[in-house]
Design a protein that fits this description.
This protein is of the alpha/beta class. It has two domains: 168 residues, Thiolase/Chalcone synthase (Peroxisomal Thiolase, Chain A, domain 1, 3-Layer(aba) Sandwich); 144 residues, Thiolase/Chalcone synthase (Peroxisomal Thiolase, Chain A, domain 1, 3-Layer(aba) Sandwich), CATH 3.40.47.10. 32% of the residues lie in helices and 24% in strands. It is built from ten helices and 14 strands. The chain has a five-stranded mixed β-sheet, with helices on both faces. Strands 8-14-13-11-12 form a five-stranded mixed β-sheet, with helices on both faces. The longest helix is centred in the last third of the chain and has 23 residues. The radius of gyration is 19 Å and the shape is globular. The model has no long low-confidence stretch (mean pLDDT 96). The structure holds coenzyme A. The site of coenzyme A (COA) has 21 residues, from α2 and α7.
Length: 333
């Protein structure tokens, strides 16, 4: 039997650069309340959202991804030809196939990088970071571009009280590559498919077509059980990610939870007993919940505003439809 060589990669992986794209259109609560019989006060009190960003016609999944990626590449000091794998986390690329990652890799000018999409909803970016770290350490790729991107307004029912005010659009990208020291801790991830129906596309496309009523099968969510699950179960997952990384609460600088709801963020911080000193991402207030894009958007903003600095230790945690979740500790680029 022929002997095979085993792949070998870098000793460690790290995020080398981060970039984001926020749609230009700012949509205040006042613009969404009428269709859902709500109020600015109710939305702010229940979710912490004051306004959100919604994409215009030109701000496609591909366009936003490429814009965010160019910034991430520049900050990482890399040329697109040095990227050998592109992973795109999204649920709002509207073609079943091919993956939008291939078009993004081509537009960026990679040299035929491996490129594929992953579907892990709001947890997608943290799944992508975990995979990229493993690819780099195993030698499957040297530099991986991980993108979290959503244009949720394409699948949003603007008359649905449970979702219309929450979800939004945007993109975040991270370049993951080799490092002398550990920059991405072990992932803690999982799923609870028993709760498959809590956040989902309302109908199967085949049922929509069979019904003859060609209406987009929108996103639907049972907010209250999701809220309870996220507030309690996810704090434990965050603690496990800290433990697995060997990082104590005293060593943690920054907490970047998925921007689902400000009250979920507060409940998690309380459950985890985060010290006052730990800076917490609160991007949702004027960005809304951008699903796979929310963690990189929130972290990038903290860096831009001086709340996170290079070398800081940050806990990332994301959760959503599936229900799927993933968390890891990273070193801020
Ligand atoms: N505007 C005004 N009132 C609304 C409303 C809206 N958009 N939606 C619901 N209500 C009303 C309900 O009718 C209900 O009224 P009642 O008490 O008179 O019966 C009341 O508000 C409470 O409804 P409920 O659904 O229990 O609200 P909630 O406190 O759970 O808040 C969410 C709703 C959606 C903000 C909250 O459940 C949530 O954030 N869930 C998690 C969302 C999330 O994290 N998603 C991320 C997945 S990625």
């Amino acid at each position: 039997m022929a002997g095979l060589t085993s792949p070998t990669g870098a000793p460690h992986a790290a995020i080398l650069g981060l970039g984001t794209y926020r749609p230009t259109r700012v949509v205040p609560n006042a613009e969404v309340v009428e269709a859902i019989d709500s109020s600015d006060e109710w939305i702010q009190q229940r979710s912490g959202i004051k306004s959100r960003r919604w994409a215009g016609p030109e701000e496609s999944v591909q366009m936003m991804s490429v814009a965010a990626s160019r910034i991430a590449l520049e900050r990482a000091g890399l040329d697109p030809r040095q990227i050998d794998c592109v992973v795109v986390a999204t649920v709002s690329h509207m073609l079943q196939t091919p993956a939008v990652a291939t078009a993004i890799a081509h537009e960026l000018g990679t040299e035929q990088a491996a490129a594929f999409d992953i579907s892990a909803a709001c947890a997608g970016f943290c799944h992508g970071i975990a995979m990229a770290s493993d690819f780099v350490r195993a030698g499957s790729a040297r530099h991986v571009l991980v993108i979290g991107v959503e244009r949720l307004t394409d699948i949003l029912d603007l008359n649905d009280r449970g979702t219309a005010f929450i979800f939004a659009d945007g993109a975040g990208a991270a370049v993951v590559g080799p490092s002398e020291t550990p920059g991405i801790g072990p992932v803690v991830w999982g799923s609870d498919g028993e709760q498959f129906d809590l956040i989902r596309q309302r109908e199967d496309w085949r049922d929509v077509i069979a019904s003859g009523d060609l209406v987009m099968p929108h996103l639907t969510m049972q907010g209250n059980p999701v809220f309870r699950w996220a507030s309690f179960a996810m704090a434990k997952v965050g603690q496990q990610a800290l433990d697995r990384a060997g990082v104590t609460l005293d060593e943690l600088d920054v907490f970047v939870p998925h921007q689902a709801n400000m009250r979920i963020t507060d409940a998690m911080a309380r459950s985890m007993k985060l010290p006052e000193r730990v800076r917490i991402a609160r991007d949702i207030a004027d960005q809304g919940n951008t699903s796979a894009a929310s963690v990189p958007l929130a972290l990038d903003r903290m860096i831009a505003e001086g709340d996170a600095k290079s070398g800081d230790t940050a806990l990332l945690i994301a959760f959503g439809a599936g229900l799927a979740y993933a968390a890891q500790v990273v070193v801020v680029p």
